[in-house]
């Protein structure tokens, strides 16, 4: 039972790898629409990136993002790329898979730059949350003045000033 499950898992991983190679070839094809190319850069980059959204060392969640995000991205890309391009790319992807993915330093630098930008933005956001005082806990400062009606709206001030004047005159 376990051997059968492992064989199924290996076959699934091999198919996923072939899909990534196919999408890599398809995103470089001039017949692929621009929006699909840009999305393919993110999907293929995420698949090939050693950095995951959820790290793999977290027991279940680490592999769950690869099991959900990649198939969803691949499925969306298959709908965006014309079938004729996918067929031609699949043949080239199989050949590329046997020979190995070419190392692209510019692609690696781009992936590292994106992750560095995400990391920097995350650190900046956390730092802002820690340094910026929260306004919901700050008490309003009250100014005391000799005139009790300074903070009242103008329409109420005239009526209240008459009443306070009457009250003061009664006290005398």
Descriptive account of the structure:
It is a single chain. The protein is globular and about 60 Å long. The chain has a domain at 2-114. Helix 1 (2-27) packs across helix 4. The protein has six helices and no strands. The model has no long low-confidence stretch (mean pLDDT 76). The N and C termini lie far apart (100 Å). The chain is mainly alpha-helical and 172 residues long. The chain has helices at residues 2-27, 34-48, 61-80, 83-99, 105-131, 154-171.
What would you call the structural class?
A: mainly alpha
Q: Outline, from the CA principal axes?
A: globular
> What is the gyration radius calculated from CA atoms?
32 Å
Low-pLDDT stretches are none
Oligomer: single chain
- Total strands: the figure is 0
Average pLDDT figure? 76
State the helicity in percent bands: over 70%
Strand content: under 5%
Secondary-structure element pattern, one letter each:
HHHHHH
End-to-end C-alpha gap: 100 Å
Q: Give the biggest beta sheet.
A: none
Number of helical stretches of at least 4 residues = 6
